[in-house]
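Example record used in the benchmark description.
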Amino acid sequence: MKITRSLFVSVFVISLVAANSCAAGKTSEIWFKRAVTAFELSLAGDESVTGVALNQFKILSMTYPDNPLFLAYKGACKTLMGRDAWMPWNKTGYTEDGLDQISHALRMLKPKHDQQMMLGTPISVETRLIAVSTFSEVPDIFNHFEKAKVVLKQLLQSPALKASPPELQAKVNQLAAKIAHKENQRHQ
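Model output (structure tokens):
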């Protein structure tokens, strides 16, 4: 894996801050909040911040390698890079890499992630939400719609979802309705 000098410096700085901070959880939450802000701007169509969001999640996932949420967001950023790429092979490459990273993040989930929180939300819930959102939105050629439905079912059955903030539960229900609508359109 090639690491650019600026990425290395950023990882080093975050690692130093995390190591020297009594509240490493707070440090990761601050960086996470910044990365999510860039991700949401990219998701809304601002291609200029897609790379920024990706780099921020690369740093977070390298600094906290046991956190599947950071890896899931990193994968989602990669799929956005695929969306923004000009060349077909780049579109495919970024998207497939992103989907693989999200799948890896899902495999990393353990029962402890139902209890561990990031900004008041169980890590398992948001990791699955990112997976479902991404899997259901990639073009059909990537064959992830069925995977989205499987992960959505796991999410809806998760006791951790009931412990999540009401706004997040509403987001999951909206996503479930959107997927059900897409499923109905596919069978007509």
